[in-house]
Amino acid sequence: MEEKEISQAVIGRLPRYFRYLGDLKDEGVERISSQELSELMKVTASQIRQDFNNFGGFGQQGYGYNVEFLYNEIGRILGLDQTHHFIIIGAGNLGQALGNYLNFERRGFIFSGIFDKNPELVGKDVRGIKVQPMENMEQFVRENDIDIAVLTIPKASALEVSERLVQYGIKAFWNFAHVDLPVPEGIQVENVHLSDSLMKLSYNISRYKKEREEK
């Protein structure tokens, strides 16, 4: 199939499709229609068909979708048929929580190392992996085929550290620091601003309260 540009909105919905299809597969469901999937996910059947048509469709008229096949195909599109090794920079509470999250391995993301500049954290065990000092980072990245760096450090440090990691060969960042990373073209960044999600919740709570008051 010829490669074409897929919108970020479509790509953003793929993990949710993957998660729902995984649950259906685990429940023994073999086939599902776009309408049935729509009712589960609260996404219109038309939107589902449009999203899947970006990748060839996957279904047959009157037959629906084979759940296991569709699950595997979306996983392949998301690159989950490959293994990605990642390190965590910042061994505070968030860094340790991410390191202890077992579900990463199920998706092919291998937690390989964790680093911090705080000498009180160096040597601490995070799911069998010792926290290393920052000066070990370059050699470790170069020798262990690390694809992804997870940044759970203050924004004051994130810019300098990310620049160094790009030089060491890191291809992507999962960035929890509250700063936009000015990385070279080709380096992928996924920003996670936790406070943004809370502010979105705040907006929706406020809007809902106003709607109720106006009724």
| Percent strand | 15-25%
Number of domains: 2
User: What strand line-up does the widest sheet have?
Assistant: 5-6-4-3-7-8-9
Give the class-level CATH name of the largest domain: Alpha Beta
What oligomeric state do these chains adopt? single chain
CATH superfamily of the largest domain: NAD(P)-binding Rossmann-like Domain
The DSSP helix count reads 9
| Helix fraction bin | 40-55%
The coarse overall form would be globular
Instruction: Look at the helices and sheets and give the structural class.
Output: alpha/beta
CATH topology of the largest domain: Rossmann fold
Mean pLDDT: 91
Distance between termini?
52 Å
What keyword list fits this structure?
single chain; 215 residues; Arc Repressor Mutant, subunit A; Rossmann fold; 2 domains; seven-stranded mixed sheet; two-stranded antiparallel sheet; 9 strands; globular
Written overview of the protein:
There is one protein chain. By secondary structure, the chain is of the alpha/beta class. It folds into 2 domains: 8-77, Winged helix-like DNA-binding domain superfamily/Winged helix DNA-binding domain (Arc Repressor Mutant, subunit A), CATH 1.10.10; 84-195, Rossmann fold (3-Layer(aba) Sandwich). It has helices spanning 8-26, 34-41, 45-53, 67-77, 93-99, 103-106, 137-143, 155-168, 194-214; strands at residues 31-32, 65-66, 84-89, 109-116, 125-126, 129-133, 148-151, 172-175, 188-191. Helix 8 (155-168) links the parallel strand 7 and strand 8 (172-175). The protein is built from 9 helices and 9 strands. The mean pLDDT is 91. It has a 7-stranded mixed β-sheet, with helices on both faces.
